[in-house]
Amino acid sequence: MRPQQPSARPAGHPTVAGGMSPSAGPADLSAFLPVAGGDALTGAFARRAPMMPWQTDRRIPEEEFPRHVAAVFGAASPARRVAYVHVPFCHTHCLFCGFYQNPYDAEETHAFAGRLVREIEAAAARPLHRDGRPIEAVFLGGGTPTALAAEDIAAVVGALRRCLPLAEDCEITLEGRTHDFTPDKVEAALGAGVTRFSIGVQSFDTRVRRRLGRKFDRAGLLALLEELVQAGGASLVIDLIYGLPGQDATVWRDDVETAAGLGLDGLDIYALSIFPGVPLSRAITAGKTLPVPSLATQAESYAHAVGRFAELGWKRLSQAHMARTGRERSLYNQLVKTDAACLAFGPGAGGSAHGRSWRTVADLAEWSRRIEVGAPTVAMMAEGTPRRAVHARIRSQLEDGVFDGASVEALVPGFLAAAEPLLSAWTAAGLGARQGSSFRTTVAGDFWMTTLAAGLIQASETLGSTRERAGLHAGRAP
């Protein structure tokens, strides 16, 4: 399902690795200049750069954890806030998924839910969780949160509402798979206060779904979604993935039209990411699955979907997310890409605040042991440099489709001059249009958004030290 905080679902491609990632060394922008004469949509670059949040962070040695944990958890954050709850269970391991952790077990998931409630209750006494701005969005992801029993879903959501200072209109998202969304779980979730359902559909085509290890066929999937639309009470969004094995243009266009006619509140469209070691990667290597559509085909699929939903009047919320109704805000996904603080719960969840990021213990048994004895669950912590705020601003603005170079120039003097070769070349290639210091992406620029972000981050790297010497380390804890 959806990866843990701090990043949103990667929108990469099997060929993203190598030569496209920003580094901390001298700026070499040649890799981010478009191919001469290449089509803006299908051939601007040889590959898409991966999203690499916090790549300049300094990993904190384990012996320093106590001091940093005390500083982070012991002070309220002035930033906007969200929370992420990780439920690490799945009934099956989908071929494409890089986030699988534990097989479903009824007793284990029930015990886990009880420990998760205890973790939330204990956190309520900490200034980081208790004080500061109201929490604007909570995301229960995984894994498969709907693998939990109905009463456990209600208990976890109830603990979040009871123990944390949630905003009155807090967006509470429950992510799940279609075969888990039984009527009793829907009723329990709505009764507990869930305001948003996010369902990983990937494709409506039965053959494509079977190849991915999905249980529902097209008819069963459509029946469930229609029931959820009729139930109301929470906004309903789904994920579609383009670039799946066997998903040709006809299948993808049918997926788009089917989604458009369901009465959804919103929809995400993602490019297939093939993570090393996952079943799909092994199947491709062994020649045991149908070919994966090319990068050019992926680009055409993205452009078709964006154009079709625009024709239908859907609102663009980000590079990969569209809303049909005003109920869909996608607030967690919007805020987590900025410098908002994120409170993390559950094994393998990622959090961030006060210029640090951390990851909780991913091993379920070890996480459970620590909860039982009241020990800290932090397994990894990193300290951000001033570049973190710069990188987050670049990424989030390009996600929104309008990059304001002046806002980065204010943080890193000289940035606009350093980025000028890229912005000029991208404009000439049809990836965007400029107005003053702003750069507004085209649909082609949106498809290549991660590569554009990586290029601008690279342009800022040689100038980051100037800001560091000035001591402008925003968001650090006392």
From TrEMBL:
<keyword id="KW-0560">Oxidoreductase</keyword>
<dbReference type="InterPro" id="IPR006638">
    <property type="entry name" value="Elp3/MiaA/NifB-like_rSAM"/>
</dbReference>
<dbReference type="InterPro" id="IPR034505">
    <property type="entry name" value="Coproporphyrinogen-III_oxidase"/>
</dbReference>
<keyword id="KW-0408">Iron</keyword>
<dbReference type="GO" id="GO:0006779">
    <property type="term" value="P:porphyrin-containing compound biosynthetic process"/>
</dbReference>
<dbReference type="GO" id="GO:0051989">
    <property type="term" value="F:coproporphyrinogen dehydrogenase activity"/>
</dbReference>
<dbReference type="GO" id="GO:0046872">
    <property type="term" value="F:metal ion binding"/>
</dbReference>
<dbReference type="InterPro" id="IPR026332">
    <property type="entry name" value="HutW"/>
</dbReference>
<feature type="region of interest" description="Disordered">
    <location>
        <begin position="1"/>
        <end position="21"/>
    </location>
</feature>
<keyword id="KW-0479">Metal-binding</keyword>
<feature type="domain" description="Radical SAM core">
    <location>
        <begin position="75"/>
        <end position="316"/>
    </location>
</feature>
<keyword id="KW-0949">S-adenosyl-L-methionine</keyword>
<dbReference type="Pfam" id="PF04055">
    <property type="entry name" value="Radical_SAM"/>
</dbReference>
<protein>
    <submittedName>
        <fullName>Coproporphyrinogen III oxidase, anaerobic</fullName>
        <ecNumber>1.3.98.3</ecNumber>
    </submittedName>
</protein>
<dbReference type="GO" id="GO:0005737">
    <property type="term" value="C:cytoplasm"/>
</dbReference>
<dbReference type="GO" id="GO:0051539">
    <property type="term" value="F:4 iron, 4 sulfur cluster binding"/>
</dbReference>
<dbReference type="InterPro" id="IPR058240">
    <property type="entry name" value="rSAM_sf"/>
</dbReference>
<dbReference type="InterPro" id="IPR007197">
    <property type="entry name" value="rSAM"/>
</dbReference>
<dbReference type="InterPro" id="IPR013785">
    <property type="entry name" value="Aldolase_TIM"/>
</dbReference>
<keyword id="KW-0411">Iron-sulfur</keyword>
